[in-house]
Amino acid sequence: MRPAARFRKLESTVMNIFESKSKYVASQPLFGTAMRLVCLAIAGFALMPVAHGRDCSATSVGYTPINDLGSGRYNTWEGGLYPGGSNARPAGHESTGLALARSVEPLNANGNPDPNGEYVLLSIGMSNTNQEFQAFVGDANSDPQKDPNLVIVNGASGGATARDWANASSRVWTDAMEELSREGVTAEQVAVVWLKLANSASRDTVDQYRIDLENDVETVVGLLNSKFPNLKLAYFSSRIYAGYATSPLNPEPQAYESGFVVKWTIEKQLNGQFSNAPWLAWGPYLWADGLTPRSDGLIWECGDLREDDGTHPSDIGKQKVASILHDFFKTDSTAREWFLANPGTPPDTVAPMPPENLEVDP
Hints:
Elements: H1 3-21, H2 23-26, H3 31-47, H4 66-69, E1 73-74, E2 77-78, H5 91-103, E3 119-125, H6 127-141, E4 150-154, H7 162-165, H8 171-182, E5 190-196, H9 206-227, E6 233-236, H10 254-270, E7 279-282, H11 315-331, H12 335-339, E8 359-360
Helix pairs in contact: 1-3, 6-11, 9-10
């Protein structure tokens, strides 16, 4: 129902209540005008969206970032971005990723090798992903070191949940394909994706949210090569800090625990699952505990989040993620192979080892 129609219906309902409850007052000459004003006020107030600001006092939730947790535990779950509490990719997985990254090449619209063709980095995710990646697109396209054959396309959509992406016939996939077309490329030219996925947490318990998100992310992974037949590499990020959020959309600890969903999905490929999927790995891990500095110094200030909800990034927050993402693609041992025109010798990108035996209560 359109907003105007909803307004008229609610106004009529309120008016009927007044009339049924007060027949004497309804007979008075001023009733019509006065009651209509009252009804307009009540109906207008009822249809106003609920405002959820940000809570700048929530500067920490007390969780340790997964990349600092090491072999310690959150709940019963071991830390580290990769197995064994490590932040480094296992050697075999690293070698496979390097080989695939070095095989990325320009393709024509049909997906066949063509030195005059192009290849695509595509984002997949929700509103935060869309906003952060859009800021990254501008930075990357102005970078003279970027490979000129690389086309960067923002396929993420506002309101596109992981559950939407897990539906092969969902409109989100159509929108992504249309975005590719607008940029003059095709699904057959997509070689790399960056995924940052989430669901709405407003109706679920924390445990159910995590379980559903894990199932949805795994389903998305299984769909990728059917959508993009020449896709080779998929980099994941999880949510940024959500402690300042006052909306139930995606608060803590759901934002923090989404990092474990990414970790477990990648580990399943390391253990032999998703053999028909692209190579899976962490992109930049973005979560930090508010103003408590991570081992690499990352923090999230209240001003990094939007004032109206504390969930979506502000312009400052968008640029912050964009810069982290840009740095990752230029320095990661696999990503620099396809992102840079002249990758050269990769720098040492092994993260420092986190402290041992750290225990964290959820």
